[in-house]
Design brief:
The structure is a single chain. By secondary structure, the protein is mostly helical. Helices cover 63% and strands 0% of the residues. It is built from two helices and no strands. The protein has helices spanning 3-17, 29-45. Helix 1 packs antiparallel against helix 2 (29-45). It starts with a helix and ends in a 6-residue tail after the last helix.
């Protein structure tokens, strides 16, 4: 399992745990941090950009 898959699983688990309440992803610091890490991991998977 790569970093992006792990982050996706963490985000999914976090959202499932908060499912009973009205959860606003854009206001949640945990969601915000996980989404940011996922984006960084996706950029890292692409490799170096051509020069």
């Amino acid at each position: 399992m790569n970093a992006r898959d792990e982050l996706r699983a963490l985000l999914k688990a976090h959202l499932a745990a908060s499912g009973g309440r009205r959860h606003l992803t854009r206001h949640c610091p945990v969601c915000h941090r996980l989404l940011r890490l996922a984006r960084e991991a996706a950029l890292g998977d692409q490799g170096p950009s051509p020069a």
